């Protein structure tokens, strides 16, 4: 299996078990973050670790009935 040492996976609020299972499979720790909504319904993500120069994946699942837009992140490479 390839090395994923520069990959950080974070979970949104919708399916933390899926993110945990993916990290277990890849043998990497799940990243620490806080995710919450502002009163105007915007989503805020606060990473609790350094993601600079890392590949970042924020696992954010939704369904057809959910019209919430995807989270916009800045960084080297967002997966």
Describe this structure in words.
A hairpin with a 5-residue loop joins β2 and β3. This protein has one helix at 16-26; strands at residues 7-11, 33-37, 43-47, 55-59, 77-78. The chain is an alpha/beta fold. The two termini are 19 Å apart.
**Strand proportion:** 25-35%
Q: Look at the helices and sheets and give the structural class.
A: alpha/beta
Secondary structure: number of strands: 5
Low-pLDDT runs of 5+ residues are none
Q: Give the N-to-C terminal Cα separation.
A: 19 Å
- What is the residue-mean pLDDT, rounded to a whole number? 78
Order of helices and strands: EHEEEE
How is the largest sheet built, in terms of strand order?
1-4-5
Shape: globular
Major sheet attributes: 3 strands, parallel
Can you give the helix content as a percent range?
10-25%
Q: What is the number of helical segments per DSSP (H or I, 4+ residues)?
A: 1
Overall radius of gyration: 13 Å
Q: Could you name the key traits of this structure?
A:
about 80 residues, alpha/beta, 3-stranded parallel sheet, two-stranded antiparallel ribbon, 1 helix, about 15% helix, globular
Blueprint (SSEs and pairs):
Blueprint: E1 7-11, H1 16-26, E2 33-37, E3 43-47, E4 55-59, E5 77-78
Parallel strand pairs: 1-4, 4-5
Antiparallel strand pairs: 2-3
Summarize the structure.
By secondary structure, the chain is α/β, with parallel strands linked by helices. Helix content is 14%, strand content 28%. It has one helix spanning 16-26, and strands at 7-11, 33-37, 43-47, 55-59, 77-78.
């Amino acid at each position: 299996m390839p090395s994923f040492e520069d990959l950080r996976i974070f979970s949104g609020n919708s399916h933390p078990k899926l993110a945990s299972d993916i990290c277990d499979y890849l043998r990497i720790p799940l990243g620490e973050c806080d995710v919450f909504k502002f009163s105007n319904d915007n989503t805020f993500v606060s990473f609790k670790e350094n993601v600079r120069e890392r590949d970042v994946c924020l696992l954010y699942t939704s369904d057809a009935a959910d019209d919430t837009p995807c989270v916009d992140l800045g960084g080297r490479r967002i997966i």
